[in-house]
Design goal:
Number of helices: 17
CATH architecture of the largest domain: 3-Layer(aba) Sandwich
CATH class of the largest domain: Alpha Beta
Number of strands: 35
Radius of gyration: 24 Å
Number of domains: 2
Distance between the termini: 61 Å
Strand content: 15-25%
CATH superfamily of the largest domain: Glutaconate Coenzyme A-transferase
CATH topology of the largest domain: Glutaconate Coenzyme A-transferase
Shape: globular
Structural class: alpha/beta
Oligomer: single chain
Strand order of the largest sheet: 18-17-23-26-32-33-34-35
Largest sheet: 8 strands, mixed
Protein backbone atom coordinates (compact mmCIF):
# COMPACT_ATOMS: atom_id res chain seq x y z
CA UNK A 1 0.00 0.00 0.00
CA UNK A 2 1.35 3.42 -0.93
CA UNK A 3 2.15 5.97 1.77
CA UNK A 4 -0.58 8.48 0.80
CA UNK A 5 -3.20 5.69 0.94
CA UNK A 6 -2.16 4.83 4.50
CA UNK A 7 -2.36 8.49 5.54
CA UNK A 8 -5.75 8.91 3.86
CA UNK A 9 -7.18 5.87 5.63
CA UNK A 10 -5.89 7.05 9.00
CA UNK A 11 -7.52 10.46 8.46
CA UNK A 12 -10.83 8.82 7.63
CA UNK A 13 -10.55 6.57 10.68
CA UNK A 14 -10.12 9.55 12.99
CA UNK A 15 -13.29 11.17 11.57
CA UNK A 16 -15.53 8.11 11.67
CA UNK A 17 -17.63 9.62 14.46
CA UNK A 18 -18.32 12.71 12.36
CA UNK A 19 -19.19 10.81 9.18
CA UNK A 20 -20.54 7.55 10.66
CA UNK A 21 -23.15 5.98 8.36
CA UNK A 22 -23.86 2.79 10.29
CA UNK A 23 -26.57 3.72 12.80
CA UNK A 24 -29.68 2.33 14.46
CA UNK A 25 -32.94 2.82 12.56
CA UNK A 26 -34.22 5.54 14.87
CA UNK A 27 -31.38 7.93 14.04
CA UNK A 28 -32.11 8.55 10.35
CA UNK A 29 -35.87 7.97 10.58
CA UNK A 30 -36.16 10.71 13.20
CA UNK A 31 -35.06 13.16 10.51
CA UNK A 32 -38.03 12.50 8.21
CA UNK A 33 -40.29 15.55 8.07
CA UNK A 34 -44.04 15.91 7.73
CA UNK A 35 -45.44 16.23 4.19
CA UNK A 36 -42.45 14.43 2.71
CA UNK A 37 -42.20 12.09 -0.29
CA UNK A 38 -40.62 8.70 0.45
CA UNK A 39 -39.41 6.28 -2.24
CA UNK A 40 -39.41 2.66 -1.03
CA UNK A 41 -37.93 -0.26 -2.97
CA UNK A 42 -39.64 -3.62 -3.12
CA UNK A 43 -40.87 -6.35 -5.45
CA UNK A 44 -43.20 -8.16 -3.05
CA UNK A 45 -40.74 -9.06 -0.26
CA UNK A 46 -37.66 -9.06 -2.49
CA UNK A 47 -35.60 -5.86 -1.93
CA UNK A 48 -38.27 -4.65 0.55
CA UNK A 49 -36.74 -2.82 3.55
CA UNK A 50 -39.34 -4.23 5.93
CA UNK A 51 -37.45 -3.28 9.10
CA UNK A 52 -37.22 0.38 8.06
CA UNK A 53 -40.90 0.45 7.07
CA UNK A 54 -42.01 -0.94 10.42
CA UNK A 55 -39.67 1.32 12.39
CA UNK A 56 -40.94 4.36 10.50
CA UNK A 57 -44.53 3.54 11.37
CA UNK A 58 -43.51 2.86 14.98
CA UNK A 59 -42.11 6.38 15.20
CA UNK A 60 -45.36 7.83 13.84
CA UNK A 61 -47.44 5.72 16.25
CA UNK A 62 -45.39 6.89 19.23
CA UNK A 63 -44.70 10.52 18.28
CA UNK A 64 -47.26 11.45 15.63
CA UNK A 65 -44.55 12.21 13.05
CA UNK A 66 -43.85 12.11 10.23
CA UNK A 67 -47.38 12.61 9.00
CA UNK A 68 -49.00 13.27 5.64
CA UNK A 69 -46.32 11.30 3.78
CA UNK A 70 -46.58 10.24 0.13
CA UNK A 71 -45.00 6.89 -0.82
CA UNK A 72 -43.66 5.93 -4.25
CA UNK A 73 -42.49 2.38 -4.99
CA UNK A 74 -41.04 0.64 -8.00
CA UNK A 75 -43.49 -2.27 -7.50
CA UNK A 76 -44.94 -3.14 -4.06
CA UNK A 77 -43.01 -3.36 -0.77
CA UNK A 78 -45.46 -5.76 0.86
CA UNK A 79 -47.01 -9.16 1.24
CA UNK A 80 -50.23 -9.96 3.13
CA UNK A 81 -49.48 -9.11 6.75
CA UNK A 82 -45.94 -7.98 6.03
CA UNK A 83 -44.16 -4.64 5.52
CA UNK A 84 -46.43 -1.95 4.03
CA UNK A 85 -49.50 -4.19 4.25
CA UNK A 86 -48.93 -4.58 8.02
CA UNK A 87 -48.80 -0.78 8.28
CA UNK A 88 -51.90 -0.37 6.10
CA UNK A 89 -53.89 -2.70 8.38
CA UNK A 90 -53.19 -0.43 11.32
CA UNK A 91 -53.97 2.69 9.32
CA UNK A 92 -57.25 1.14 8.21
CA UNK A 93 -58.33 0.61 11.83
CA UNK A 94 -57.52 4.25 12.65
CA UNK A 95 -60.21 6.42 11.05
CA UNK A 96 -58.18 9.53 11.94
CA UNK A 97 -54.81 8.35 10.68
CA UNK A 98 -52.55 11.18 9.50
CA UNK A 99 -49.55 9.08 8.50
CA UNK A 100 -50.22 8.26 4.84
CA UNK A 101 -51.55 10.85 2.39
CA UNK A 102 -51.22 8.75 -0.72
CA UNK A 103 -49.24 6.29 -2.81
CA UNK A 104 -47.91 5.81 -6.32
CA UNK A 105 -47.91 2.03 -6.39
CA UNK A 106 -47.69 -0.12 -9.53
CA UNK A 107 -49.20 -3.20 -7.89
CA UNK A 108 -51.54 -3.66 -4.92
CA UNK A 109 -52.39 -7.34 -5.40
CA UNK A 110 -50.40 -8.63 -2.41
CA UNK A 111 -51.57 -5.90 -0.03
CA UNK A 112 -55.24 -6.43 0.87
CA UNK A 113 -55.22 -3.66 3.49
CA UNK A 114 -53.73 -1.10 1.15
CA UNK A 115 -56.43 -2.03 -1.35
CA UNK A 116 -59.09 -1.35 1.28
CA UNK A 117 -57.66 2.10 1.96
CA UNK A 118 -57.74 2.79 -1.77
CA UNK A 119 -61.23 1.39 -2.45
CA UNK A 120 -62.70 3.40 0.42
CA UNK A 121 -61.03 6.53 -0.90
CA UNK A 122 -59.10 7.18 2.30
CA UNK A 123 -55.79 7.90 0.57
CA UNK A 124 -54.79 9.09 -2.90
CA UNK A 125 -53.68 6.27 -5.19
CA UNK A 126 -52.06 6.23 -8.62
CA UNK A 127 -51.22 3.08 -10.56
CA UNK A 128 -48.37 3.60 -12.97
CA UNK A 129 -46.89 0.41 -14.49
CA UNK A 130 -43.73 -1.02 -12.93
CA UNK A 131 -41.57 -0.21 -15.95
CA UNK A 132 -42.84 3.37 -16.11
CA UNK A 133 -42.17 3.96 -12.42
CA UNK A 134 -38.72 2.33 -12.53
CA UNK A 135 -37.72 4.43 -15.54
CA UNK A 136 -39.26 7.55 -13.98
CA UNK A 137 -36.72 7.24 -11.16
CA UNK A 138 -33.95 7.30 -13.78
CA UNK A 139 -35.41 10.34 -15.50
CA UNK A 140 -35.66 12.24 -12.20
CA UNK A 141 -32.07 11.23 -11.42
CA UNK A 142 -31.09 12.93 -14.69
CA UNK A 143 -32.89 16.13 -13.71
CA UNK A 144 -35.65 15.72 -16.29
CA UNK A 145 -39.28 16.69 -15.61
CA UNK A 146 -40.67 13.18 -16.04
CA UNK A 147 -40.90 10.21 -18.37
CA UNK A 148 -42.08 10.45 -21.99
CA UNK A 149 -43.39 7.23 -23.56
CA UNK A 150 -46.05 5.81 -25.86
CA UNK A 151 -47.03 3.29 -23.20
CA UNK A 152 -50.51 3.95 -21.85
CA UNK A 153 -52.07 5.79 -24.79
CA UNK A 154 -55.74 4.80 -25.15
CA UNK A 155 -55.77 2.99 -21.76
CA UNK A 156 -56.76 3.95 -18.22
CA UNK A 157 -53.33 5.61 -17.91
CA UNK A 158 -54.31 8.17 -20.55
CA UNK A 159 -55.50 11.47 -18.98
CA UNK A 160 -58.42 11.43 -21.43
CA UNK A 161 -59.58 8.43 -19.40
CA UNK A 162 -58.53 8.07 -15.72
CA UNK A 163 -55.00 9.42 -15.96
CA UNK A 164 -53.73 6.46 -13.86
CA UNK A 165 -55.79 7.46 -10.80
CA UNK A 166 -57.06 4.34 -9.04
CA UNK A 167 -59.65 6.11 -6.91
CA UNK A 168 -61.65 9.33 -6.68
CA UNK A 169 -59.21 10.98 -4.33
CA UNK A 170 -56.38 10.39 -6.78
CA UNK A 171 -58.46 11.90 -9.58
CA UNK A 172 -59.29 15.04 -7.61
CA UNK A 173 -55.87 15.63 -6.03
CA UNK A 174 -53.39 14.99 -8.83
CA UNK A 175 -50.10 14.63 -6.96
CA UNK A 176 -49.08 12.44 -9.92
CA UNK A 177 -49.96 13.68 -13.39
CA UNK A 178 -50.08 12.23 -16.88
CA UNK A 179 -50.20 14.58 -19.91
CA UNK A 180 -50.61 13.99 -23.63
CA UNK A 181 -47.80 15.17 -25.91
CA UNK A 182 -47.55 15.21 -29.70
CA UNK A 183 -44.12 14.48 -31.17
CA UNK A 184 -43.85 14.42 -34.96
CA UNK A 185 -47.50 13.46 -35.30
CA UNK A 186 -47.39 10.63 -32.75
CA UNK A 187 -49.10 10.71 -29.35
CA UNK A 188 -46.97 10.23 -26.24
CA UNK A 189 -47.66 10.48 -22.53
CA UNK A 190 -45.62 12.49 -20.02
CA UNK A 191 -45.61 10.95 -16.52
CA UNK A 192 -44.81 13.32 -13.63
CA UNK A 193 -44.68 12.80 -9.86
CA UNK A 194 -43.06 14.60 -6.91
CA UNK A 195 -39.33 14.01 -6.48
CA UNK A 196 -38.43 11.85 -3.43
CA UNK A 197 -37.18 13.60 -0.31
CA UNK A 198 -36.11 10.30 1.24
CA UNK A 199 -35.38 6.77 0.02
CA UNK A 200 -35.70 3.52 1.96
CA UNK A 201 -33.84 0.78 0.09
CA UNK A 202 -32.40 -2.64 0.86
CA UNK A 203 -29.27 -4.62 0.12
CA UNK A 204 -27.46 -7.59 1.67
CA UNK A 205 -24.14 -6.11 2.74
CA UNK A 206 -22.71 -2.64 3.29
CA UNK A 207 -19.18 -1.60 4.02
CA UNK A 208 -18.48 1.11 6.57
CA UNK A 209 -18.53 3.74 3.82
CA UNK A 210 -22.09 2.83 2.83
CA UNK A 211 -21.40 0.96 -0.41
CA UNK A 212 -24.06 -1.71 -0.94
CA UNK A 213 -23.97 -5.19 -2.45
CA UNK A 214 -26.89 -7.55 -3.04
CA UNK A 215 -25.31 -11.00 -3.05
CA UNK A 216 -28.10 -12.71 -1.06
CA UNK A 217 -30.99 -10.94 -2.79
CA UNK A 218 -32.95 -12.80 -5.45
CA UNK A 219 -33.10 -9.79 -7.76
CA UNK A 220 -31.43 -6.41 -8.25
CA UNK A 221 -34.58 -4.31 -8.40
CA UNK A 222 -34.45 -0.53 -8.81
CA UNK A 223 -32.45 0.47 -5.75
CA UNK A 224 -29.69 2.32 -7.61
CA UNK A 225 -32.14 4.43 -9.61
CA UNK A 226 -34.18 5.18 -6.47
CA UNK A 227 -31.04 6.34 -4.66
CA UNK A 228 -29.96 8.50 -7.61
CA UNK A 229 -33.41 10.08 -7.98
CA UNK A 230 -33.38 10.98 -4.29
CA UNK A 231 -29.88 12.47 -4.42
CA UNK A 232 -30.50 14.46 -7.62
CA UNK A 233 -30.39 18.26 -7.40
CA UNK A 234 -31.64 20.88 -6.88
CA UNK A 235 -33.09 19.43 -3.68
CA UNK A 236 -30.90 16.54 -2.60
CA UNK A 237 -32.63 14.02 -0.38
CA UNK A 238 -31.54 11.38 2.12
CA UNK A 239 -30.95 7.69 1.31
CA UNK A 240 -31.35 5.13 4.09
CA UNK A 241 -30.41 1.50 3.46
CA UNK A 242 -31.43 -1.65 5.30
CA UNK A 243 -28.78 -4.40 5.25
CA UNK A 244 -28.18 -7.78 6.80
CA UNK A 245 -24.39 -7.70 7.12
CA UNK A 246 -21.70 -5.09 7.65
CA UNK A 247 -18.12 -5.37 6.41
CA UNK A 248 -15.13 -3.11 6.85
CA UNK A 249 -14.28 -0.24 4.55
CA UNK A 250 -13.16 -1.10 1.01
CA UNK A 251 -13.78 -4.82 1.62
CA UNK A 252 -16.34 -5.17 -1.20
CA UNK A 253 -15.20 -6.09 -4.67
CA UNK A 254 -15.98 -3.03 -6.83
CA UNK A 255 -17.82 -5.25 -9.34
CA UNK A 256 -20.17 -6.36 -6.56
CA UNK A 257 -21.20 -2.84 -5.51
CA UNK A 258 -24.77 -2.10 -6.61
CA UNK A 259 -24.99 1.32 -4.95
CA UNK A 260 -21.76 3.28 -4.31
CA UNK A 261 -21.29 4.63 -0.78
CA UNK A 262 -21.43 8.36 -1.66
CA UNK A 263 -25.10 7.86 -2.67
CA UNK A 264 -26.01 6.39 0.74
CA UNK A 265 -26.41 8.53 3.85
CA UNK A 266 -27.27 5.93 6.48
CA UNK A 267 -27.09 2.16 6.89
CA UNK A 268 -29.09 0.10 9.39
CA UNK A 269 -28.59 -3.59 10.15
CA UNK A 270 -31.93 -5.41 10.20
CA UNK A 271 -32.89 -8.45 12.30
CA UNK A 272 -33.14 -11.51 10.07
CA UNK A 273 -36.91 -11.83 10.57
CA UNK A 274 -37.34 -8.56 8.68
CA UNK A 275 -35.05 -9.45 5.79
CA UNK A 276 -36.68 -12.36 3.94
CA UNK A 277 -35.70 -13.23 0.38
CA UNK A 278 -39.29 -13.95 -0.68
CA UNK A 279 -42.79 -13.98 0.71
CA UNK A 280 -42.35 -17.59 1.89
CA UNK A 281 -38.60 -17.98 2.37
CA UNK A 282 -36.20 -16.34 4.80
CA UNK A 283 -33.13 -17.70 3.02
CA UNK A 284 -32.49 -20.29 0.32
CA UNK A 285 -29.03 -20.38 -1.32
CA UNK A 286 -30.67 -21.38 -4.60
CA UNK A 287 -32.53 -18.05 -4.66
CA UNK A 288 -29.28 -16.11 -4.18
CA UNK A 289 -27.63 -18.35 -6.82
CA UNK A 290 -24.92 -19.66 -4.51
CA UNK A 291 -26.24 -23.12 -5.35
CA UNK A 292 -27.28 -23.87 -8.94
CA UNK A 293 -29.28 -27.12 -8.82
CA UNK A 294 -29.74 -29.37 -11.84
CA UNK A 295 -33.22 -29.19 -13.32
CA UNK A 296 -34.89 -32.49 -12.45
CA UNK A 297 -38.50 -33.69 -12.26
CA UNK A 298 -38.22 -33.69 -8.48
CA UNK A 299 -37.08 -30.06 -8.48
CA UNK A 300 -39.93 -29.04 -10.81
CA UNK A 301 -42.44 -30.73 -8.49
CA UNK A 302 -40.93 -28.91 -5.50
CA UNK A 303 -40.99 -25.50 -7.17
CA UNK A 304 -44.44 -25.71 -8.70
CA UNK A 305 -46.04 -27.23 -5.60
CA UNK A 306 -49.32 -28.97 -6.28
CA UNK A 307 -49.68 -30.00 -9.92
CA UNK A 308 -51.61 -27.42 -11.94
CA UNK A 309 -55.10 -28.18 -13.11
CA UNK A 310 -54.93 -30.26 -16.26
CA UNK A 311 -56.49 -27.51 -18.32
CA UNK A 312 -53.94 -24.94 -17.06
CA UNK A 313 -51.13 -27.09 -18.40
CA UNK A 314 -52.97 -27.28 -21.73
CA UNK A 315 -52.79 -23.48 -21.95
CA UNK A 316 -49.09 -23.37 -21.02
CA UNK A 317 -48.36 -26.07 -23.60
CA UNK A 318 -50.25 -24.17 -26.30
CA UNK A 319 -48.02 -21.16 -25.61
CA UNK A 320 -44.96 -23.40 -25.96
CA UNK A 321 -46.16 -24.50 -29.41
CA UNK A 322 -46.47 -20.86 -30.43
CA UNK A 323 -42.92 -20.22 -29.23
CA UNK A 324 -41.65 -23.20 -31.19
CA UNK A 325 -43.26 -21.67 -34.28
CA UNK A 326 -41.40 -18.45 -33.51
CA UNK A 327 -38.14 -20.37 -33.18
CA UNK A 328 -38.67 -21.81 -36.66
CA UNK A 329 -39.39 -18.33 -38.01
CA UNK A 330 -36.45 -16.68 -36.26
CA UNK A 331 -33.94 -19.56 -36.53
CA UNK A 332 -32.52 -18.47 -33.19
CA UNK A 333 -33.51 -18.70 -29.51
CA UNK A 334 -36.79 -16.96 -28.69
CA UNK A 335 -36.94 -14.46 -25.81
CA UNK A 336 -40.32 -14.45 -24.07
CA UNK A 337 -41.59 -12.63 -21.00
CA UNK A 338 -43.86 -14.54 -18.65
CA UNK A 339 -46.46 -12.90 -16.46
CA UNK A 340 -47.91 -14.10 -13.18
CA UNK A 341 -50.42 -16.96 -13.07
CA UNK A 342 -50.80 -19.51 -15.86
CA UNK A 343 -48.09 -17.89 -18.05
CA UNK A 344 -45.54 -18.58 -15.29
CA UNK A 345 -46.16 -22.32 -15.91
CA UNK A 346 -44.53 -21.95 -19.32
CA UNK A 347 -41.04 -22.03 -17.79
CA UNK A 348 -41.70 -25.38 -16.10
CA UNK A 349 -43.23 -26.83 -19.29
CA UNK A 350 -40.19 -25.62 -21.24
CA UNK A 351 -37.95 -27.38 -18.69
CA UNK A 352 -40.08 -30.52 -18.85
CA UNK A 353 -39.78 -30.52 -22.66
CA UNK A 354 -36.03 -29.79 -22.38
CA UNK A 355 -36.14 -26.73 -24.64
CA UNK A 356 -34.85 -24.02 -22.30
CA UNK A 357 -31.86 -23.30 -24.54
CA UNK A 358 -34.26 -22.53 -27.41
CA UNK A 359 -36.94 -20.69 -25.41
CA UNK A 360 -35.40 -18.07 -23.13
CA UNK A 361 -37.86 -16.90 -20.49
CA UNK A 362 -37.45 -13.52 -18.79
CA UNK A 363 -39.28 -11.99 -15.82
CA UNK A 364 -40.17 -8.35 -15.26
CA UNK A 365 -38.12 -8.44 -12.05
CA UNK A 366 -34.95 -8.74 -14.16
CA UNK A 367 -34.29 -12.49 -14.30
CA UNK A 368 -33.18 -14.31 -17.45
CA UNK A 369 -33.92 -18.04 -17.73
CA UNK A 370 -34.35 -20.50 -14.91
CA UNK A 371 -37.52 -21.89 -13.39
CA UNK A 372 -39.88 -19.10 -12.35
CA UNK A 373 -41.41 -19.24 -8.88
CA UNK A 374 -45.07 -18.43 -8.51
CA UNK A 375 -47.61 -17.03 -6.08
CA UNK A 376 -46.08 -15.08 -3.22
CA UNK A 377 -42.62 -15.75 -4.66
CA UNK A 378 -43.34 -14.47 -8.17
CA UNK A 379 -40.46 -12.44 -9.58
CA UNK A 380 -37.81 -14.90 -8.46
CA UNK A 381 -36.44 -18.01 -10.09
CA UNK A 382 -34.16 -20.98 -9.55
CA UNK A 383 -31.09 -21.17 -11.79
CA UNK A 384 -31.40 -18.06 -14.00
CA UNK A 385 -28.33 -17.29 -16.08
CA UNK A 386 -28.41 -13.48 -15.77
CA UNK A 387 -29.87 -10.72 -13.56
CA UNK A 388 -30.78 -7.29 -14.92
CA UNK A 389 -32.06 -4.35 -12.92
CA UNK A 390 -35.80 -3.70 -13.28
CA UNK A 391 -35.41 -0.58 -15.50
CA UNK A 392 -32.87 -2.40 -17.69
CA UNK A 393 -35.24 -5.34 -18.12
CA UNK A 394 -38.14 -3.07 -19.05
CA UNK A 395 -36.03 -1.57 -21.84
CA UNK A 396 -36.24 -5.03 -23.42
CA UNK A 397 -40.02 -4.89 -23.19
CA UNK A 398 -40.82 -1.34 -24.21
CA UNK A 399 -38.29 -1.39 -27.04
CA UNK A 400 -39.59 -4.66 -28.47
CA UNK A 401 -36.24 -6.37 -27.92
CA UNK A 402 -37.99 -9.49 -26.68
CA UNK A 403 -39.75 -11.66 -29.25
CA UNK A 404 -42.97 -12.29 -27.37
CA UNK A 405 -44.81 -12.06 -24.07
CA UNK A 406 -47.39 -14.24 -22.38
CA UNK A 407 -49.61 -12.48 -19.86
CA UNK A 408 -52.75 -13.35 -17.94
CA UNK A 409 -56.16 -11.73 -18.38
CA UNK A 410 -59.26 -11.12 -16.32
CA UNK A 411 -61.42 -9.59 -19.07
CA UNK A 412 -61.24 -9.30 -22.87
CA UNK A 413 -63.74 -7.29 -24.94
CA UNK A 414 -64.83 -7.33 -28.59
CA UNK A 415 -62.16 -4.74 -29.52
CA UNK A 416 -59.41 -6.91 -28.05
CA UNK A 417 -58.88 -4.62 -25.05
CA UNK A 418 -57.62 -6.44 -21.96
CA UNK A 419 -58.12 -5.87 -18.26
CA UNK A 420 -55.67 -8.12 -16.39
CA UNK A 421 -56.67 -7.72 -12.77
CA UNK A 422 -59.05 -4.91 -11.80
CA UNK A 423 -62.70 -4.83 -10.76
CA UNK A 424 -64.65 -2.40 -8.53
CA UNK A 425 -63.84 -4.56 -5.48
CA UNK A 426 -60.42 -5.66 -6.70
CA UNK A 427 -58.00 -2.80 -7.38
CA UNK A 428 -54.74 -4.60 -8.03
CA UNK A 429 -53.10 -1.96 -10.22
CA UNK A 430 -51.39 -2.55 -13.56
CA UNK A 431 -48.12 -4.18 -12.43
CA UNK A 432 -45.73 -4.63 -15.33
CA UNK A 433 -48.54 -5.49 -17.74
CA UNK A 434 -48.97 -2.27 -19.81
CA UNK A 435 -45.29 -1.89 -20.69
CA UNK A 436 -44.79 -5.56 -21.54
CA UNK A 437 -47.97 -5.89 -23.60
CA UNK A 438 -47.48 -2.47 -25.17
CA UNK A 439 -43.94 -3.15 -26.32
CA UNK A 440 -43.82 -6.86 -27.19
CA UNK A 441 -44.27 -7.49 -30.93
CA UNK A 442 -46.27 -10.64 -30.16
CA UNK A 443 -48.42 -11.13 -27.07
CA UNK A 444 -50.19 -14.32 -26.07
CA UNK A 445 -52.82 -13.54 -23.44
CA UNK A 446 -53.39 -16.75 -21.51
CA UNK A 447 -56.03 -17.80 -19.04
CA UNK A 448 -59.09 -19.89 -18.30
CA UNK A 449 -62.05 -19.16 -20.56
CA UNK A 450 -64.40 -18.41 -17.65
CA UNK A 451 -63.92 -17.44 -14.00
CA UNK A 452 -65.52 -18.89 -10.90
CA UNK A 453 -65.70 -22.42 -9.56
CA UNK A 454 -65.45 -24.97 -12.33
CA UNK A 455 -64.81 -28.65 -12.93
CA UNK A 456 -62.84 -29.20 -16.12
CA UNK A 457 -60.79 -32.28 -16.88
CA UNK A 458 -59.26 -34.24 -19.72
CA UNK A 459 -60.62 -37.65 -20.67
CA UNK A 460 -59.51 -39.70 -23.68
CA UNK A 461 -57.46 -36.74 -24.91
CA UNK A 462 -60.53 -34.49 -24.98
CA UNK A 463 -61.61 -31.57 -22.83
CA UNK A 464 -64.46 -32.41 -20.45
CA UNK A 465 -66.41 -29.43 -19.07
CA UNK A 466 -68.42 -30.96 -16.23
CA UNK A 467 -69.16 -27.63 -14.56
CA UNK A 468 -68.26 -24.30 -16.11
CA UNK A 469 -67.25 -21.13 -14.32
CA UNK A 470 -70.19 -18.77 -13.86
CA UNK A 471 -68.31 -15.51 -14.54
CA UNK A 472 -67.72 -14.53 -18.19
CA UNK A 473 -64.23 -13.24 -19.01
CA UNK A 474 -64.97 -12.33 -22.64
CA UNK A 475 -67.24 -9.31 -22.18
CA UNK A 476 -68.74 -6.46 -24.21
CA UNK A 477 -66.56 -3.83 -22.47
CA UNK A 478 -63.75 -4.36 -19.96
CA UNK A 479 -63.91 -2.60 -16.58
CA UNK A 480 -60.56 -0.86 -17.20
CA UNK A 481 -58.62 -0.77 -20.45
CA UNK A 482 -55.07 -1.71 -19.46
CA UNK A 483 -54.13 -3.01 -22.93
CA UNK A 484 -55.49 -1.30 -26.03
CA UNK A 485 -56.33 -3.55 -28.95
CA UNK A 486 -56.52 -0.50 -31.22
CA UNK A 487 -52.97 0.56 -30.38
CA UNK A 488 -51.67 -2.99 -30.88
CA UNK A 489 -53.18 -3.12 -34.37
CA UNK A 490 -51.85 0.36 -35.15
CA UNK A 491 -48.28 -0.80 -34.55
CA UNK A 492 -48.70 -4.19 -36.23
CA UNK A 493 -48.46 -6.39 -33.14
CA UNK A 494 -49.63 -9.99 -33.25
CA UNK A 495 -52.14 -10.75 -30.48
CA UNK A 496 -53.56 -14.14 -29.50
CA UNK A 497 -55.95 -15.02 -26.66
CA UNK A 498 -55.27 -18.60 -25.55
CA UNK A 499 -57.63 -20.56 -23.31
CA UNK A 500 -58.14 -24.24 -22.55
CA UNK A 501 -60.99 -24.52 -25.04
CA UNK A 502 -60.39 -21.88 -27.71
CA UNK A 503 -57.75 -19.68 -29.33
CA UNK A 504 -58.65 -16.25 -30.72
CA UNK A 505 -56.67 -13.80 -32.87
CA UNK A 506 -57.06 -10.00 -32.89
CA UNK A 507 -57.74 -8.49 -36.32
CA UNK A 508 -59.09 -5.25 -37.72
CA UNK A 509 -62.51 -6.94 -37.59
CA UNK A 510 -62.25 -7.88 -33.92
CA UNK A 511 -61.60 -11.32 -32.44
CA UNK A 512 -61.41 -14.28 -34.81
CA UNK A 513 -61.98 -17.77 -33.38
CA UNK A 514 -59.16 -19.90 -34.84
CA UNK A 515 -58.95 -23.08 -32.73
CA UNK A 516 -61.31 -25.18 -30.62
CA UNK A 517 -60.41 -27.94 -28.16
CA UNK A 518 -61.48 -31.50 -28.98
CA UNK A 519 -64.65 -32.38 -27.09
CA UNK A 520 -65.92 -28.78 -27.07
CA UNK A 521 -69.10 -27.55 -28.77
CA UNK A 522 -68.58 -24.08 -30.26
CA UNK A 523 -72.09 -22.75 -29.61
CA UNK A 524 -72.66 -24.35 -26.19
CA UNK A 525 -69.19 -24.04 -24.63
CA UNK A 526 -67.78 -20.92 -26.29
CA UNK A 527 -70.15 -18.44 -27.96
CA UNK A 528 -72.95 -18.78 -25.39
CA UNK A 529 -70.42 -17.97 -22.62
CA UNK A 530 -69.23 -14.73 -24.26
CA UNK A 531 -70.60 -11.17 -24.07
CA UNK A 532 -70.13 -10.78 -27.82
CA UNK A 533 -69.98 -13.04 -30.83
CA UNK A 534 -66.54 -13.62 -32.36
CA UNK A 535 -66.06 -14.30 -36.04
CA UNK A 536 -65.20 -17.96 -36.77
CA UNK A 537 -62.13 -18.38 -38.94
CA UNK A 538 -62.66 -19.78 -42.40
CA UNK A 539 -60.03 -22.35 -41.45
CA UNK A 540 -61.28 -23.12 -37.91
CA UNK A 541 -59.44 -26.19 -36.58
CA UNK A 542 -58.99 -28.35 -33.51
CA UNK A 543 -56.23 -27.52 -31.05
CA UNK A 544 -53.17 -29.79 -31.33
CA UNK A 545 -53.99 -33.20 -29.83
CA UNK A 546 -50.59 -33.28 -28.06
CA UNK A 547 -51.83 -30.61 -25.66
CA UNK A 548 -54.29 -33.06 -24.11
CA UNK A 549 -52.00 -36.08 -23.67
CA UNK A 550 -50.13 -36.98 -20.49
CA UNK A 551 -46.80 -37.68 -22.17
CA UNK A 552 -44.41 -34.97 -23.34
CA UNK A 553 -45.27 -33.19 -26.58
CA UNK A 554 -41.90 -33.97 -28.16
CA UNK A 555 -41.14 -30.39 -29.12
CA UNK A 556 -37.40 -30.82 -28.57
CA UNK A 557 -37.30 -33.37 -31.35
CA UNK A 558 -39.35 -30.98 -33.48
CA UNK A 559 -36.83 -28.17 -32.89
CA UNK A 560 -33.87 -30.43 -33.62
CA UNK A 561 -35.40 -31.28 -36.98
CA UNK A 562 -35.74 -27.55 -37.71
CA UNK A 563 -32.06 -27.05 -36.90
CA UNK A 564 -30.97 -29.87 -39.20
CA UNK A 565 -32.81 -28.40 -42.22
Amino acid sequence: MRFYEIVFRKVIATKVGMFAKVVDAATPLSKLKDDCVIAISGFNMATTPEYLILELYKRYAEQGHPKNVFVISDALPAMPGRALDWVAERLYSDRNQEFLRGVLMPYLGFSPWLQKLVRENRIECYGWPIGITAYWFREIACGRPGLVTKIGVDTFLDPRREGAALNEKGGKNPSCRVSVMNIEGEEYLLYQAPKPDYALIRATTADENGSLSMEDEGLRGTILSIAQATKARPKQGTVIAQIRWLTKSWALNPRDVDVPGPLVDYVTIAPKQYHWQTGTTEYDPRISYKVIPPITEKLLEELTGAPPNEYEKVIARRIILELVRLFEEKQAPVIVNLGIGIPALVSSVAAEEDVTEFIITVLESGLWGGIALSGADFGLAISPFALSTVPDMFSNFEGGIIDAASLGFLQVDRAGNVNPSMLPDRIFGPGGFPVIAGGAPKTYFAGAFTAGKSEISILNNKLQIVKDGSIPKFVESVFKVVFSGRQALKYGHEILYITERAVFRLTEHGLILEEVAPGVDVDRDIISKMGFTPTPSSSLKEMDERLFKKEKMGVREEIMQMIKK
